Amino acid sequence: QVQLVESGGGLVQAGGSLRLSCSASGLTFSSYAMGWSRQVPGKEREIVAAINRSGGNTYYNDSVKGRFTISRDNSKNTLYLQMNSLEPEDTAVYYCAATMAYDRWWIATKYNYWGQGTQVTVSS
């Protein structure tokens, strides 16, 4: 079955950096666009970044643009999210997700598979 396993979350001070990884199995990784989403209790899950199948096209939510970088290594079936200049408002559970969609990657309902999530906590 499809498994998406996130790692790299943790506690960091404001202004710090973290790098999240998502290891994929059970699917042809290069056939899926991939995204990172986040959710805090009481709020809807939002897609913060997405990347197309080849890695040549990306999407970023305005709240993370210029601070976060999404990338992928299709030879390793792995997705990454480099997060710099972290702010307390970035505190959330971060999820990796896979979609067959070719556009509108900012829509969470377009994603077919989801990981279990990794907690990111940014202290002020």
Structure explained in plain terms:
This protein has strands spanning 3-7, 10-13, 18-25, 33-39, 46-51, 58-60, 68-73, 78-83, 92-99, 113-114, 118-123. It is globular and about 40 Å long. The strands form 2 sheets. Strands 2, 4, 5, 6, 9, 10 and 11 form a 7-stranded mixed beta sheet that branches. A 4-stranded antiparallel beta sheet has the order 1-3-8-7, with no helix packed on it. It has 124 residues and is mainly β. The mean pLDDT is 97. Helices cover 0% and strands 49% of the residues. 33% of the residues are buried. The protein has no helices and 11 strands.
Features:
124 residues; mainly beta; seven-stranded mixed β-sheet; four-stranded antiparallel β-sheet; 0% helix
What's the short version?
The protein is mainly beta.
N→C terminal distance: 40 Å
Give the mean pLDDT.
97
Shape: globular
- The total of beta strands comes to 11
Furnish the topology, listing elements before pairings.
Layout: E1 3-7, E2 10-13, E3 18-25, E4 33-39, E5 46-51, E6 58-60, E7 68-73, E8 78-83, E9 92-99, E10 113-114, E11 118-123
Parallel strand pairs: 2-11
Antiparallel strand pairs: 1-3, 3-8, 4-5, 4-9, 5-6, 7-8, 9-10, 9-11
